[in-house]
Design a protein that fits this description.
8-stranded mixed beta sheet, 10-stranded mixed beta sheet, 18 strands, 507 residues, globular, alpha+beta
């Protein structure tokens, strides 16, 4: 079956749904829900996956764009969470999405704020993380070993650092994700290729163990979907659909800096948060020259917004941490934009959100709805596997074998040698993998499709055309919102919207 998603396929599958009983209904199409749909479909189960908005609309599009090994969790004593992260990182980098995840060096600069004792502890933690890499089976060719750097080596990788008092740095490696929304899209399309119905703009109004009452948000039509098992993967909104699920959302804010703010930065930075033993602000250079700085960990009270907003306090906190290490401070007017995401943390009734475990949890309600919460983007596949295992266990009529997704390549994935040989721009290869030549080939129909949507932005018009034809984008907002995190800050989005709307009329 084709992996392509389109408005026509959505309409056809939506019309067929009311008369069917599917094995698994998945609610939520962020990275976890898309992963659940793929895991269930790969086991031979019939699947319908719905979302009130677009693919990757919620937390999954506001991440740090990292696939990391969980060094912070190791330092907190959560060895099982750190090991799980290291295993899942290796799976993504080597087998399921090597086109989307690449190794990135990180430097912890040894400034006067980093004492000798903290240096010793952090260095030991990095080597323990490398031992987890080895235990997870990830070779050094993928993630090199950590090591101590001289001050000269540190400044070569990170010229914006303040040289005064710099004793050197600690170098480690982790995975950088080219685009989180592209990962979710690849997972959803891989599931669609195995027969899953991927239905955006379809809202669950009520949920039970035998299905859901839903509404097509485009037409307003309401109907019932019947299912043998139901998985609630709606993240921070999970408690609104299933009673007894108590979440404590935490807001993580990132700054977006243009390339001129931190010139010459070729490695990520770990900048310690004063007064915190295991917290760091991350400075993450992107392939287009922009830099992300994050992230905060602040509790969120009250109703959960569709699009969380960063606060000036969050922005000021991140700028203060930058100021503690940089030779020339980054000022507020140099911040091109900021974005915030909400972590769906299970409320443990104590401590700050920074102290709540990032271990995921699978809950089964009295009427049989399986809810999966917690975790993080890196471990989405394991979260999905555990959720489907629970769904199969709670629905005796389902017959399914073990999960296959640890060795199932996502759409576009291929070994590095094959990716390197593709005849397409490298930026497209790093986002579309083996489909990159097909995206570039759209320019044969219209040469202007290889132009950026806006001058200076890393989004080609061909990418928007591809999203309409093959990735289920239904309107101009979908086209741009999936890409906001790779360079489009709010002013850019407003300027690009007319171009996206015009493009919709010709594809």
């Amino acid at each position: 079956m084709s992996t392509s998603l389109s408005a026509a396929r959505r309409a056809r599958e939506l019309d067929d749904l009311p008369g069917k009983v599917v094995d698994v209904l998945v609610v939520g199409l962020g990275v976890t829900g898309a992963g659940v749909a793929l895991d269930a479909a790969s086991r031979g189960l019939s699947v319908a996956a719905i979302d009130a908005h677009d693919l990757a609309f919620g937390t999954s599009r506001w991440s740090s764009k990292l696939v990391h090994g969980g060094l912070r969790y190791l330092a907190s004593g959560h060895v099982d969470v750190a090991y799980e992260s290291a295993v899942e990182r290796g799976i993504l980098m080597e087998r399921t999405a090597p086109h989307l995840v690449r190794a990135l060096p990180f430097v912890l600069p040894l400034t006067p704020m980093v004492g000798r004792a903290q240096t010793t502890v952090t260095r030991a933690g990095m080597h323990a993380g490398d031992a987890l890499r080895l235990a997870a089976g990830t070779p050094r060719a993928v993630l090199p070993r950590p090591r101590r750097l001289s001050a000269t080596e540190t400044l070569r990788l990170a010229p914006p650092l303040r040289p005064y008092g710099l004793r050197g740095g600690l170098l480690s490696w982790d995975g950088r994700l080219a685009d989180d929304a592209r990962l979710v899209t690849a997972i959803a399309r891989t599931a669609a290729g195995l027969g899953a119905s991927i239905l955006t703009r379809c809202r669950a109004l009520a949920l039970g163990g035998d299905g859901a009452h839903v509404r097509d948000e485009l037409s307003g039509r309401e109907f019932t979907v019947r299912a043998r098992a139901v998985v609630n993967a709606t993240g921070v909104w999970a408690g609104e659909l299933v009673g007894g699920v108590r979440l404590r959302p935490s807001r993580g804010t990132h700054l977006v800096l243009r390339s001129t703010a931190l010139p010459g930065l070729s490695a990520g930075l770990h900048l310690p948060v004063p007064g915190e033993r295991n917290r760091f602000v991350l400075v993450i250079p992107q392939e287009d020259g922009r830099v992300y700085v994050g992230l905060t960990d602040e509790p969120v009270d009250g109703p959960v917004p569709d699009v969380p907003e960063p606060t000036e306090a969050d922005i000021g906190f991140l700028l203060d941490i930058l100021d503690s290490a940089l030779d020339v401070p980054v000022t507020r007017d140099q911040v091109a934009g900021a974005f915030a995401g909400l972590r769906p943390l299970l409320d443990d009734g104590q401590g700050s959100t920074a102290d709540i475990s990032r271990r995921h949890t699978v809950l089964t309600s009295r009427d049989g709805v399986v809810t999966v919460v917690g975790g993080k983007l890196t471990t989405y596949r394991r979260m999905a596997e555990d959720a489907v295992d629970a769904a199969v266990a709670s629905a005796p009529r389902l017959d399914a074998g073990p999960s296959r997704t640890a060795r199932l390549p996502l759409v576009g994935a291929a070994p590095p040698a094959r990716l390197a040989a593709l005849d397409a721009p490298r930026r497209l290869v790093r986002r579309y993998g083996t489909e990159a030549p097909l995206v570039a080939a759209l320019a044969r129909e219209d040469a202007t499709l290889l132009d950026p949507v806006l001058p200076g932005l890393p989004v080609l018009r061909a990418e928007l055309a591809w999203a309409v034809r093959h990735e289920g984008a239904l309107d101009a907002g979908d086209l741009l919102d999936r890409r906001t995190r790779i360079g489009l800050v709010p002013a850019d989005r407003a300027a690009a919207l007319p171009a996206a709307e015009a493009l919709l009329s010709v594809v």
